[in-house]
Amino acid sequence: MAKFLLRGFKANQTVACLLNMVIRMAPPPPLTPSELTKIPDHRWLSMATNCIFCSGFNWRVVNAKWDGFEEAFEGFDLGRWIFSNEDDLGRLVSDTRIIRNGMKIKTVPENARFFGEISKEYGSVGAWIGNWPSTDQIGLMDQLHKRGSRLGAMTGQYFLRFMGKDCFILSRDVTAALVRAGVVDKYPTSKKARLATQSAFNKWMDESGLGLTAISRTLAHSLDG
């Protein structure tokens, strides 16, 4: 992996320098499975909703209004939204505290029901996500896409990252690095390409001792210079 990461860098740049740069720019390290398990279910619903509303919209505007979202959605309590009704949705589409996108507002009760099912099956959403193996992130992403509402593709990946799950994000730069490494020939959408992507990350984890987040960020910055 080290040899691959050096491509595209100036002669005086080393892998150590690159990793130090990534560490300085990186957010806090991923949480442990135990730490993720302790996160209340309503926080998972809150972050899922945040990522959904940020998708295709200015995230600064979403975050500036987030206190209003928390108030309007009553702290994202799962029980409250599992049993919500059309009157609740009708009220929300007129609520100036939030961004009044009806399709995205509907994802709150839909994902509340999804997370409620998960919590019933595994004890909590955090336990389910926290104990999902890093070597099968693709499988977790598939579950979010199939069982959740608007939690597929990049939205699901950012949701996991922002909650502290050790994961890769297939950003434009990461995808370009994967193409350069011969792992895929474009953003991986087919089952074969997705499995190849997971296999490459698993190999790099074994070789480097790093987690998915660190490898993903290193790949993203490997095109700089």
Care to describe what's here?
There is one protein chain. With 225 residues, the chain is mainly alpha-helical. It has two domains: 2-30 and 168-221, no CATH class; 33-163, Endonuclease III, domain 1 (Orthogonal Bundle). It is 64% helix and 0% strand. It contains 16 helices and no strands. The chain has helices at residues 2-6, 15-25, 33-37, 41-54, 59-64, 66-72, 78-82, 86-92, 102-105, 107-122, 125-130, 137-147, 153-163, 172-180, 191-208, 212-221. α4 (41-54) runs antiparallel to α10 and α14 crosses α16 (212-221). It is globular and about 50 Å long. Residues 1-25 have low confidence and may be disordered.
Number of strands: 0
**Mean pLDDT, as a whole number?**
90
- Given this structure, which CATH class of the largest domain is correct? Mainly Alpha
Helix content range? 55-70%
Relevant CATH superfamily of the largest domain? Hypothetical protein, domain 2
Any idea what the CATH architecture of the largest domain is?
Orthogonal Bundle
Radius of gyration: 19 Å
Q: What number of structural domains do the residues give? A: 2
Task: Characterize the overall form.
Answer: globular
Order of helices and strands: HHHHHHHHHHHHHHHH
